[in-house]
Design brief:
Keywords: Hydrolase, Protease, Serine protease. The chain contains twelve helices and 38 strands. With 660 residues, the protein is α+β, with helices and mostly antiparallel strands. The protein folds into two domains: 292 residues, 6 Propeller (Neuraminidase); 259 residues, Rossmann fold (3-Layer(aba) Sandwich). The strands form nine sheets. It has an eight-stranded mixed β-sheet with strand order 31-32-34-33-35-36-37-38, with helices on both faces. A four-stranded antiparallel β-sheet has the order 1-2-3-4, with no helix packed on it. A four-stranded antiparallel β-sheet has the order 5-6-7-8, with no helix packed on it.
């Protein structure tokens, strides 16, 4: 039996962004190790037959980051981004299916961030189809579209940000905003001549996403007012752009957090949809919206559902497909244009991610189930899907993963997961129990494989712990009402939801009440800090990149208004308010360069515990942001957290069921 080591966790390759060729025969995808060994990440571009008839092979290997594959319309070549010339600065490349040296198409000094190809292009050197000739001006044929900053952009010095009271009262921006971030623009590329020219004038607005209509007509473009997340994200715009003339037509303001622009053809013509935050407010689930081309209205197609759309993807010119988070599972659904509803095609236990569709019938995705790490799969949209590669980490005995279903104190139906140590059953309990709270809170634990660089379920289970992965209210998978219920009230009913699950495991003889630990990262870190400020029942805690003061975070973090909406106006849900109650030994982990939850949050907790003599360790990881990316830091985090819980949750004599 193979042993699970920290190295095995961070060195395994994880696939992402699978893309089906238009003819449905091939899948291109990127793959990279969990941990980064140098200053810049390294990832490879892989090609596999969609029917699984041969193992994947790497296209154009290099020691660079190759990512974001996109297919040529004739399925004969793959376009991708790579920083193989200058690390950290991606350019656009093209490679044939036979592999070999890729062809560099751009030399754009700020780097390229995204790309697509206008429909109707049949490949470099091919004859131009007559129907495309009639539709697109000759000078614009064979054009690619890429998103990148203007090389001539220079940030203002000094930067001045002015907000007028008149504009605020009118509900308008009412401000002048100098940004240090380079706003992205829209550019056209002729791959034959390498000529680049600007497409469309959005003024100072920042281009976020672009999608081409399948018939080669207009482009849909999503923008922010400026490149800064705040206020840019809160002043979004949706536009139609003529690729020939560059003319722009506005479609009004989309929902916040808009993404996944998707076209489809209906009985009344072309339709445009996207994912966005469910209104009203800044806390809640996501929804599928349809943007009206004439009215400017944006209609919610998933209102009232008790599930959450996670991805929306085009299926040629037909109705789009979507992935839905449904409890512990994921479903593939197709939009029914006549009714505006979604019909289930297949249900996958665990997760499907990065969905890609060819001809509306063949799909590819990254799948994970309870005992199988992420692997690229393909097959019929109605299922089943075929693995295109062998899942990693074979030969290791995993802890038994069990689905949980229970009711909260107020009767709300909840779910979660229990992972027991390898080879153990409930009858071998009670076990030391570590409860790991997910981040977000707009996230969830699906019935997938739980092993990653942070202290995940299988990592702790293989060390002898039972692990509880709860899905309290506030997360995804149960609709908007479930997700929005924590707005301004984090740490309230969601904390009770977690305690109710722990109590059930104690009552069932699974968890030892004297050996309970709690931990998490980001919002999960907040919940761990909140838990030990509310009760002494936990023997140890882990707070990783956790929120300690919501009011300070709303003024210093990058999520600003979202954090204010979660934490509420008076700060009473902040762990720092109740830090004088904390007696639990606590491990604090934080990235020094975290902009989501700045290091000052960890400083607040460290100082509060230090001044009160509470035993704790405070670990700061240089060069790291909200997530640990460097391999050595990930190894340290895995080992340190397992050692911390082992230290505090393993008494000299195990407690038996007869001991109570």
């Amino acid at each position: 039996m193979a042993e699970l080591t920290a190295e095995a966790v961070v060195d395994r390759n994880v696939p992402r962004t699978p893309r089906l060729s238009p003819d449905g025969r091939w899948v291109a995808f990127a793959s990279s190790p969990v941990g980064r060994t140098g200053k810049h990440p390294v990832s490879g571009l892989w090609l596999a037959p969609a029917d699984g008839s041969a193992p994947p092979r790497e296209l154009a290997p290099s020691d660079a980051e190759d990512h974001e594959p996109r297919w040529a319309p004739d399925s004969g070549s793959v376009f991708f981004l790579s920083d193989r010339v200058e690390r950290g600065t991606a350019q656009l490349y093209r490679v044939g299916l036979a592999g070999g040296g890729p062809e560099q198409l751009t030399d754009w000094s700020p780097g390229v961030h995204a790309h697509l190809w206008l429909p109707g292009w049949a490949g470099v050197g091919n004859a131009r189809p007559a129907e495309v000739e009639a539709r697109v001006p000759p000078a614009d044929w064979s054009l690619g579209v890429f998103v990148a900053p203007d090389p001539d952009f220079r940030p203002a010095d000094p930067r001045v940000r002015v907000v007028t009271a008149e504009g605020s009262r009118a509900g308008e921006p009412g401000r002048a905003w100098d940004t240090v971030a380079r706003p992205d623009r829209l550019w056209l590329l002729d791959p034959r001549t390498r000529a680049v020219r600007s497409l469309a004038d959005f003024g100072e607005r920042h281009v976020v996403e672009v999608a081409a209509r399948p018939d080669g007509g207009v482009l849909a473009v999503l923008t922010w007012s400026v490149a800064d997340r705040d206020p840019g994200l809160f002043e979004p715009g949706l536009h139609l752009v003529d690729p020939g003339s560059g003319a722009v037509r506005d479609l009004g303001a989309p929902a916040l957090e808009a993404s996944s622009l998707t076209w489809w053809r209906g009985e009344t013509g072309w339709h445009l949809g996207y994912l966005g935050l469910t209104p009203p407010g800044l806390v809640g689930g996501r929804a599928v919206f349809e943007a009206g081309e004439t009215s400017g209205a944006h209609r919610n197609l998933t209102a009232g559902l008790t599930v959450c759309p996670a991805e929306l993807v085009p299926a040629g010119d037909g109705p789009p497909l979507a992935l839905f988070s449904e409890g512990l599972d994921t479903t593939v659904r197709r939009l029914e244009p006549a009714t505006g509803t979604f019909t289930e095609l297949t249900r996958a236990p665990g997760t499907l991610q990065s969905l890609s569709v060819a001809d509306g019938e063949v799909i590819a995705a990254v799948a994970s189930t309870a005992y199988e790490p992420d692997v690229v799969c393909a097959g019929s949209a109605a299922g089943p899907l075929t693995h295109l590669a062998e899942p990693p980490l074979r030969g290791i005995v995993w802890g038994t993963q069990e689905r949980l279903s229970y009711r909260a104190e107020d009767g709300l139906e909840l779910d979660g997961l229990l992972i027991l140590p390898p080879g153990k059953t409930r009858e071998d309990g009670p076990f030391p129990l570590v409860t790991l709270v997910h981040g977000g809170p707009d996230d969830r634990y699906a019935d997938r494989f739980h092993l990653n660089w942070y202290p995940s379920g299988q990592w702790l289970a293989t060390a002898g712990f039972a692990v509880f992965l709860p899905n309290p209210r506030g997360g995804w998978g149960h609709g908007h009402a479930f997700a929005v219920s924590v707005a301004g009230a984090v740490g309230g009913a969601e904390f009770t939801d977690i305690l109710t699950g722990i109590d059930r495991l104690v009552d069932d003889g699974v968890a030892d009440p004297r050996r309970l630990g709690i931990g998490g990262g980001s919002h999960g870190g907040f919940m761990a800090a909140w838990a030990v400020s509310q009760t002494d029942r936990f023997a140890a805690a882990l707070v990783s990149a956790g929120v300690i003061d919501w009011r300070v975070l709303a003024a210093t973090g990058e999520l600003t208004r979202f954090d204010a909406a979660l934490g509420g106006p008076d700060g009473s849900t902040s762990p720092i308010t109740h830090a004088h109650r904390i007696r639990t030994p606590t491990l604090i982990l934080h990235g020094e360069d975290d902009t989501n939850v700045p290091l000052s949050q960890a400083d607040l907790l460290h100082h509060a515990l230090r001044d009160r003599g509470v035993e704790h360790e405070y670990v700061v990881y240089p060069r790291e942001g909200h997530s640990l990316r460097e391999r050595d830091h990930q190894l340290d985090g895995l080992r340190r957290t397992r050692e911390w819980f082992s230290r505090w949750l393993a008494p000299e004599r195990p407690v038996s069921k007869q001991d109570g």
